[in-house]
Structure formats: structure tokens, C-alpha cells
Amino acid sequence: MDGVDYYFLDNESFGKMIEEGQLLEWAEVYGHFYGTPRRFLQEALDQGNDVVLEIDIQGALQVKERFPLAVLIFVVPPSLLELESRLISRGSDSREEIEKRLRCTTHEMEMAYHYDYIVVNDKVARALDIVRAIIIAEKSRPQRNRCLVQSLM
Q1: Considering the domain 1-52, what is its CATH architecture?
Q2: pLDDT tens across 122-143, in order?
Q3: Is the CB of residue 102 less than 8 Å from the CB of residue 83?
Q4: Model confidence, pTM
Q5: What do you get for the CA distance between the two ends of the chain, in Å?
Q6: What percent of the chain has pLDDT over 70?
Q7: Where, residue-wise, is CATH 3.30.63.10 in the chain?
């Protein structure tokens, strides 16, 4: 939904945001442009919030390059057959689009090795529990707690 889940822009406006450096990351995925405005991320971080971005591989790697402490979680379906079934049941893509996405799967799966974690989304509740555990563990890393450690020295 425009203005709630996403902000829909024409290509010219999107291109202007890229040129002006307003996007944290951006990518063309399956013929559509996607990006994350820097200001939304910065506002959330300034408020002390954790930020979870649901983004394509291209965007995730851009984020990791700009924020080395970013944690990348690669979410995979339990099987390719299940992926196809999920894409069909969404009812939002044509058969041609679904086939295009499935053809890209092998390359996308190879990119999982650039991520910090892989989570199998077999059951949503279980996958969420794993993601929560990753977030908790990552918050305990020494490099995220330098101030605490130094204050105790």
C-alpha cells in the first residue's frame, strides 16, 4: 500500500534520489526498482531501534559494504518446490514472472554464502524465533559493546 508498506515513485524521481545519494541501497529486481531511503533508517537508528530490512541480495550487499556491522540473514524456503508453491499461492505474479524468479534461484542461493546467517522458513513462528535469537546474540558481540567493556576497565 503506497505510503504505508511502500512509497511508489516514477523512474525519474527514483533516479533523482539515487543521484542525490538519498538511498541507502537500491536495485533493479525482476524489472522493478527498489530502494531504502537513508533518512528512514537513520531516524530509526537515532531512536535506538533495531532495523530489519527485507531487501534483495544486491541491496543487502550494498548495506553490508556501507555498514560492516550490519547482520545479513538469508531466508530460504525449505525446498524449490515449496518456493514455487508459495509464489503461485500469492496470486500476485504471472506464470511468466514466477518462472523468471525460479530461474534466478540458483544464482541467488549461491549468494547466501555472503550472508552471516541462513534461516530456513519452513514454519513462520520457528523462523521468527531463529531471527530473534540472532538479534539477541548479535547484540552481545564485543564490537557492539565497546563502551560497556571500556567502562569496566
Answers
A1: 2-Layer Sandwich (3.30)
A2: 999 999 999 999 999 999 988 8
A3: yes
A4: 0.81
A5: 50
A6: 96
A7: 1-52
